[in-house]
């Protein structure tokens, strides 16, 4: 992989869009030297590559936006990196943050945008995380610290005796072990997930269901046979019934009646005869008790009127006879307890009133006087009227309805007698009549029984067929689950086997990689160290990655016993060894690698490390690190040079071709 172009805009001192082209070389190796004074933007250059590839939190970007742009209200930053992959494809990664037109924006207002272009065609980015994963797979962020590093990373590795132990995870990522370990972990996770849903279906479970299916099928066949026999019996009884009916029709020239019909007619005749007897008794009773009086029922109306008239005459005579007493009673009612009139009557007026009342009572109620014929007392008159009411409300007047009902019942009984009278005229015919009736009766009974038996059998067959379908479905599912169960069991076993194999492979790979790493690291260390003659061996523990140096006597040399320069040389050698061992063809960016080294070590770095660091090497240096002397020694290996020029008045960094003293 090679970087071709980097663009930075709105980030720290890179206010305007600044484009840096990575020059290509004639051979397979390329060294690009970029000069810059302290604060000119060398660190920003390295950060821009990481931000373009992997992004960052909005707080970090917000705080790093160029201050002049913020003052102008432009809260945005953009990066663009063009690179060629090992398979010859050109990838352009564009990443930007912008708050848009938001007034007084905050970090949370920054909106991140990612665009990926492959071979001139914009990729369809449905999910930013998908393309982020693509970039991370292309350039794993866990190992870029060993390819894009500065003096601080060198100091971190060189700081302590066991600093490399803290880098174990990153070292394994650079050596390719991390991915295999991740694969092992993923296999174990998948195995555990499969195990949670794993339900073992044994052959015994399938055999049990097959046995149940066989029993139900046998039961179904028996029911079908029973239904066939019942249908045959039903057809036979229907045939016998039809033959008996035809013989009956041929012999008696009429339709046969079933026993039920005959019994129903006999029942109806019995009921009609009983009711006829009841009606006759009611008629007789009515005739015996009230019929004589009913003859005079037409005289009842006149008799009642005469009795009422004579009762009125008697009442009027009683009023006349008692006129004086009634008059005094009325006068008392008017005057006592207080007079009803407003002014008291005089003696003359009172006498006149009394005389008028008496006269009116003596004259009667204005009714015509009727001569009394019956001469009945009040008691006798009331008793006669009560008796007349009893006669008028008695059942005597139901006689007509009873006579009509009797006539209807006589006709019904005659009709039923005709229906019940056998068609046979002699004893032999009557016997045949009874035999045929009995035969049809028996056939009809059997037809009913067999029809009901068939109905029940059909219901049983429907239930059995449904049960068979359910069992067959269960067996089908069991076979599927049995197959899945067997496959899952095999899969889990395979996962265990593969995980175990990967575990062994990791051990072997780690041993081989660590062995190669210590060879490459020791190779570079001997080239760079001024004390390489004192160091006989360099060993790396394959489990902890702890590095130990040994002198000619085999005694361990502690890293803390080395000088600061030797520590940095050791760190650079380890970084170079990682690059060589990982076999990843990534660009190497080194920021200020010579600042803490003496002239002797710098000479080794320039002659032995820079030309062999990688296929594409970018060196960021001040004018005191790679000075004119070192530049002259390094120039034959350079594919290009440039510098970051910072204008303190405008707080602006621009990129210019040529090193410090080149124009």
Word description of this protein:
The chain is of the alpha/beta class and 663 residues long. It has a domain at 259-420. It has helices at residues 42-54, 58-64, 67-71, 128-138, 141-144, 151-158, 163-166, 168-174, 177-196, 203-252, 259-289, 291-295, 300-321, 323-335, 347-363, 378-393, 399-420, 427-528, 564-582, 599-609, 628-634, and strands spanning 2-9, 18-21, 30-36, 76-84, 90-98, 111-118, 121-122, 148-150, 535-540, 547-551, 556-557, 588-591, 616-621, 638-647, 652-657. Strands 2-1-4-5-6-7 form a six-stranded antiparallel β-sheet, covered by helices on one side. Strands 8-12-13-3-14-15 form a six-stranded mixed β-sheet. A hairpin with a 4-residue loop joins strand 14 and strand 15 (652-657). The protein is elongated. The model has no long low-confidence stretch (mean pLDDT 79).
Short description:
With 663 residues, the chain is of the alpha/beta class. The protein has helices spanning 42-54, 58-64, 67-71, 128-138, 141-144, 151-158, 163-166, 168-174, 177-196, 203-252, 259-289, 291-295, 300-321, 323-335, 347-363, 378-393, 399-420, 427-528, 564-582, 599-609, 628-634; strands spanning 2-9, 18-21, 30-36, 76-84, 90-98, 111-118, 121-122, 148-150, 535-540, 547-551, 556-557, 588-591, 616-621, 638-647, 652-657.
